[in-house]
Amino acid sequence: MPIPSLGGFQAFEAAARHLSFTLAGEELFVTQAAISQRIKQLETQLGFKLFLRQVRQLALTKEGAQLAPVVTRSIGAITQAIVAVNADQNCGPLTVSTLSSFAMKWLIPRLADFNLHYPEIQLRIHTGDAVVDFNSGGIDLAIRYAAKEISGLYSVPLMVDEVFPVCSPALLARGKTLRKPDDLKNFVLIHDESDSRRFGHPNCSGLDWETWCRAVGAEINTRTGLFFNQGDQVVQAAVAGQGVAITRTSLAQDDIAAGRLIRLFKSNVMASAGYSIVCRDDMLQSTKIVAFREWLLQQAEMISVTVT
User: Fold this and answer.
1) If you ran DSSP here, which 8-state letter would residue 82 be given?
2) What are the structural domains, with CATH classification, of the chain?
3) pTM of the prediction?
């Protein structure tokens, strides 16, 4: 026998408790006729009568009286389970997966603001670039750098970066001329290989010297220099005066604002990939996820990099 709908059992439970179709309808915000119809459908599916419909009086049949307490307990258990799930989603820790470089250079410096506005939400930050398993991995929300939309999940763009060279003020103070892109041939180039590892080839997101030089028309040897597989390492090497780094807005903006780095040239090269906020569709209404998602989007709107 097919299992009857939960709506029919809800109508039966309310009517059995009140012994009134009218009061049951008021409780469930439907009409008396709708309650009567649902119960008739339920009786047809079950194969027996649930109520004795008498003049101005409603009474349970023997079968209805036997079924009513079981249905009441079952609906109560379902309700309690839903409340428990919502409590876990809304009040438990929020576990966020993101890339190590993004965490170090963008997210962590801003977390004090999130904690100030949402002290009740306990954050757990996991770093890595592996594919997130939202069903069994214990992750509530992820921030990923991707060249296309992630299928099968809720995804909203967080930010798209510009790509540009940076160096420390101390490097420029050493006296070498760096007025135009071709002057880079006299400097050590610092390379970011993280996108090459993540996307399979270096030009997927445009975060490499060859792509940038082609975009601005510079003719230099881009196959020499220092190579790192994490974006935050690239930025730190530039801060330390090791050479000129190719980087992007999200990773370098705080160091530029603090004067630790100088953005070079007035180029406008956009990365073809970008950061996105990702989670399961059924988690969209979770209070803690809504709060963190809106906070991330607000922080992303505040990005401002001064071009020298």
Assistant:
1) H
2) 6-91 (1.10.10.10), 94-160+274-301 (3.40.190.10), 162-270 (3.40.190.10)
3) 0.65
